[in-house]
Amino acid sequence: MNLSNNVGTSHQSAFGRHPVGMARLGRAAARCRLRIRRTALRGPRSDAGMSTAEYAVGTIAACGFAAVLYKVLTSGPVSEALQQLVERALDAAS
Predict the structure, then answer these.
(1) Cα separation of 85 and 93, whole Å?
(2) Counting runs of H as helices and runs of E as strands, what totals does the chain give?
């Protein structure tokens, strides 16, 4: 493969000629090496945030928990107990 005639205008690969200069290929390779080195120095990324799917699951779980809590708090025995608690608190304040 003779690239001496194509220097600066294109390069030959297994897939044919590509209109990419050899200098651009060198710069792209250098950027790739820098990105790899930066990533290696920085270490693995932390999973501090949630993705969209995790937000959806979290929202559904929160809605389910709220529905269960509402049913428990509006049930007969719990509602009576809360009402008595509030009445005792108001009686103690006066």
Answers:
(1) 12
(2) 3, 2
